[in-house]
Specification:
The longest helix is centred in the N-terminal third of the chain and has 27 residues. Strand 12 and strand 13 form a beta hairpin. The protein is 19% helix and 41% strand. It is built from two helices and 13 strands, in the order αβββββββββββαββ. It starts with a helix and ends with a strand. With 197 residues, it is α+β, with helices and mostly antiparallel strands. The strands form two sheets. Strands 1, 2, 3, 4, 5, 6, 9, 10, 11, 12 and 13 form an eleven-stranded mixed beta sheet that branches.
Length: 197
C-alpha cells in the first residue's frame, strides 16, 4: 500500500511539472492572435506617464515681483525657458527668472477626452491637492498647447510605488488639473501642485 501511494505522489509531481512547463511555454510565446488578453505586455509599475491639464489662463510671477499672464504653450527643457501666449503674441521667459506659475480659478480647462471644465465655478475638485516635487524638467511635456494637455512622468523618488498606484487609480476616471508649477533651474526640476476633477 505504501508503494502505491508513493507511486501516486511521483505521478502527481511529474504531471504538475509538465503542466507548469506547458503554461510557461504558452506564456512566453509571442502570441499574435490580436486578443489582448493573450498577449504578454510588459508593465512597468514603477513609473507612470500621467496626463495632466493646464488651465487656459496662467499668471507667471517673476522673481522680481513682476508678472505676465496668458496661456502656457511650451516648456523647453534644453533651453530652460517657458513660452506664454496672449493676444496672439508669444513671449519666452527663462525659467531661472520665474518664481512660480499660478493657474487661475475660473479658467477653462480641457480634459484629455476633450470635455471642458471650468474650475471653481461649476466644477469642483473631487480630491485633495497633491504636490509632486523634484520632477526632472525633461519629464514634463506639453502635448497640445491649444487645449492645455500635458504629460508628466512620475516615478520614484518623486512618488512612492504605493502613491503611484493611488494616482493611477484616481486618473482612471478623473483628470488631474494643475494649480501651480514652480521651477528649480539649478537642479533642473519642477514642482507641480494639482487636483483631480
Amino acid at each position: 500500500m505504501k508503494a502505491f501511494f508513493q507511486g501516486w505522489v511521483v505521478a502527481i509531481l511529474v504531471m504538475a511539472t509538465a503542466i507548469a512547463g506547458n503554461i510557461q511555454a504558452v506564456i512566453s510565446q509571442d502570441i499574435k492572435t490580436g486578443n489582448l488578453l493573450l498577449v504578454q505586455t510588459p508593465v512597468n509599475t514603477d513609473e507612470l506617464d500621467l496626463a495632466v491639464a493646464l488651465p487656459e489662463l496662467a499668471e507667471v510671477i517673476l522673481k522680481g515681483g513682476e508678472s505676465s499672464s496668458g496661456q502656457i504653450t511650451g516648456i523647453d527643457a534644453q533651453g530652460e525657458a517657458l513660452s506664454i501666449q496672449r493676444s496672439g503674441k508669444t513671449a519666452t521667459i527663462p525659467l531661472n527668472k520665474i518664481q512660480r506659475v499660478v493657474f487661475k480659478n475660473g479658467a477653462l480647462v480641457y480634459r484629455s477626452n476633450g470635455r471642458q471644465i471650468i474650475r471653481g465655478e461649476r466644477d469642483r475638485p473631487t480630491g485633495k491637492l497633491v504636490t509632486w516635487s523634484g520632477i526632472p524638467l525633461n519629464t514634463f511635456t506639453i502635448k497640445n498647447s491649444t487645449q492645455g494637455q500635458a504629460v508628466v512622468k512620475l516615478k520614484p523618488p518623486v512618488v512612492t510605488t504605493a502613491q503611484l498606484r493611488g494616482i493611477q487609480s484616481v486618473a482612471r476616471n478623473r483628470q488631474y488639473v494643475v494649480d501651480k508649477i514652480q521651477f528649480n533651474s539649478q537642479q533642473r526640476t519642477i514642482t507641480i501642485l494639482a487636483k483631480p476633477y
